[in-house]
Write a structure and sequence with these properties.
This protein is mainly α. 73% of the residues lie in helices and 0% in strands. The chain contains four helices and no strands. Helix 1 packs antiparallel against helix 3 and helix 1 runs parallel beside helix 4. The longest helix has 28 residues.
Length: 123
């Protein structure tokens, strides 16, 4: 989860959220696997194991880079969607709201794809 100090708050939130989803999902798999291996000694907390695996994997870098690119594209789309104040008449405002809505939907879709495509495999 490599974040730069120049990251926007939105990017930081989405970086953390995407990583947390991958880590939590993997920790659930670890818990489930431990239930089937009753004779195994208790290991470290499941979340810590999942976190360590995530950090050591190539998925952490891929998620970070993918989220950064998606947020930058979204922020760029939002800049171009903003119209000067004198153009914000009703018909222009509707067009602007539609562009903003489409940009948000595209960002959510991309973040979801990134998160699902970089799930950790069960070892």
């Amino acid at each position: 989860m490599c974040q730069t100090s120049g990251s926007s708050p939105l990017e930081n939130i989405l970086q953390l959220s995407s990583a947390a989803i991958v880590i939590f999902e993997h920790s659930f798999y670890i818990v489930d696997k431990q239930h089937y291996l009753q004779d195994q000694p208790e290991s470290a907390p499941y979340f810590i194991v999942a976190l360590d695996r995530y950090i050591a994997s190539l998925h952490a870098v891929a998620v970070s880079e993918g989220v950064s690119a998606a947020v930058q594209a979204y922020e760029e789309a939002m800049k171009t969607a903003v119209l000067p104040a004198w153009k914000t008449k009703l018909r222009f405002k509707r067009s602007q709201e539609k562009k903003e809505s489409q940009a948000k939907a595209e960002l959510i879709k991309i973040i979801l794809e990134i998160t699902l495509n970089h799930r950790l495999r069960i070892a």
